[in-house]
């Protein structure tokens, strides 16, 4: 009897094995024919039988499952993650399979392309998760984790962002890589290619010239800057300071790190240190108008009005069309207007008060004439700024420039549709 039971068991196992092979063969055929839904159904049927299957069949099952979920996913995160799980199980069973590694690469392409679409649609959370999934299936390319962190940060998911940045920091990630580029003959644009072979192929087409190899800039300072700002956002200023101290010690002349420290102390409300650090940044990058603009902002907040105007003017010198600098110069000049108006309104009707009123009025007109060229430049660059138009109307009215007042009034009427 025992022998008969044993034989029956062997026969049953053989039948199950045959059934497994049959279902997987049918699933593979359906997948090859593009019948993804049918393939998924067949794989679902085969799944309960996999626990007792041999390694070869299990590998085949998980490989097919990975392919099926990837092909049917579109941008569906759930299916893409199931594909990733299946491929990882298959890879664990057969680490040397080129079919599996090729499948994982196809999955990564799908994940990254889908994440880019989500990122462009400002769906940062799902973009971050797709990029993290891509990193998890192939940890050799840590750039996926870097971009996952960036999307988490954009989505204000600070817990996830700091988790990813801390992993990158522990790994010593820099993002530095060799980039193969060539120049488009028609547009003159320098175009990067995936690898040297792809670049050389395009050169042979005759559409590209000037092949070059470039080393990309390090992302480390960006990571450290974002980490410090997240720590500040989470209320952990000491951790932020400690991290920045380490980062600056590593790269004391890194302009982006000095800027990161400046951003950090600005967030902490330390405007004096912010101004000091921004001067350090400018010394490293003296032709950047944005730096002078930011130094102007911090100087204005510290009450250093003339310094603020000086820095804004330097920004304009480097970029004559810098509208924000023009606007801020006018705003900084007009800060004294309120005090003059208050004093004028509180004067009496005595001869001395009348004389003082005339003095203050002259000072007011001097302010207006000083601010006017900058406001007019702002309005010229953007004719739809209602607040600028209203300010100009008020100044023209005070200065008796009726024609200009009427022109601004008509423009405001057109904008507001009245």
TrEMBL record:
Domain of life per record: Bacteria
Keywords carried by this UniProt record: Repeat, TPR repeat
TPR-type repeats, residues: 289-322
InterPro entries xref list: O-mannosyl-transferase_TMTC (IPR052346), TPR-like_helical_dom_sf (IPR011990), TPR_rpt (IPR019734)
PANTHER family named in the record: PROTEIN O-MANNOSYL-TRANSFERASE TMTC4, PTHR44227
Name this polypeptide is given: Tetratricopeptide repeat-containing protein
């Amino acid at each position: 009897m025992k022998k008969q039971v044993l034989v029956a068991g062997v026969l049953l196992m053989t039948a199950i094995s045959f059934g497994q092979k049959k279902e997987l063969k049918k699933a593979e055929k359906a997948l090859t024919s593009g019948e993804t839904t049918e393939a998924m159904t067949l794989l679902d049927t085969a799944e309960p039988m996999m626990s007792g299957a041999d390694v070869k069949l299990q590998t085949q099952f998980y490989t097919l499952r990975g392919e099926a979920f990837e092909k049917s996913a579109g941008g569906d995160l759930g299916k893409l993650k199931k594909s990733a799980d299946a491929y990882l199980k298959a890879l664990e069973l057969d680490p040397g399979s080129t079919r599996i590694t090729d499948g994982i690469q196809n999955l990564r392409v799908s994940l990254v392309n889908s994440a880019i679409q989500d990122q462009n649609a400002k769906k940062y959370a799902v973009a971050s998760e797709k990029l993290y999934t891509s990193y998890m299936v192939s940890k050799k390319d840590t750039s996926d984790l870097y971009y996952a962190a960036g999307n988490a940060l954009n989505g204000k998911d600070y817990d996830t962002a700091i988790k990813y940045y801390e992993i990158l920091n522990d790994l010593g990630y820099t993002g530095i890589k060799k980039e193969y580029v060539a120049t488009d003959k028609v547009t003159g644009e320098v175009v990067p290619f995936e690898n040297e072979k792809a670049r050389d192929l395009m050169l042979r087409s005759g559409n590209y010239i000037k092949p070059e190899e470039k080393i990309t800039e390090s992302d480390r300072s960006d990571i450290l800057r974002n980490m410090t700002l997240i720590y500040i956002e989470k209320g952990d200023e000491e951790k932020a300071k400690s991290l920045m101290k380490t980062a600056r010690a590593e790269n004391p002349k890194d302009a982006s790190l000095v800027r990161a420290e400046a951003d950090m102390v600005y967030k902490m409300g330390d405007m004096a240190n912010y101004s000091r650090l921004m001067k350090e940044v400018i010394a490293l990058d003296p032709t950047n108008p944005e730096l002078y603009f930011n130094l102007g902002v911090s100087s204005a907040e510290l009450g250093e009005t003339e310094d603020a105007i000086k820095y804004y003017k330097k920004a304009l010198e480097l970029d004559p069309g810098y509208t924000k600098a023009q606007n801020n110069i006018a705003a900084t000049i007009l800060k004294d207007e309120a005090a003059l108006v208050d004093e004028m309104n509180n004067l009496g009707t005595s001869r001395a008060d009348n004389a003082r009123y005339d003095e203050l009025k002259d000072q007011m007109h001097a302010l207006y004439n000083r601010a006017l060229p900058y406001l007019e430049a702002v309005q010229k660059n953007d004719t739809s700024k209602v607040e600028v138009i209203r300010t100009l109307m008020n100044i023209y009215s005070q200065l008796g420039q009726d024609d200009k007042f009427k022109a601004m009034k008509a423009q405001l009427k057109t904008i507001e549709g009245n």
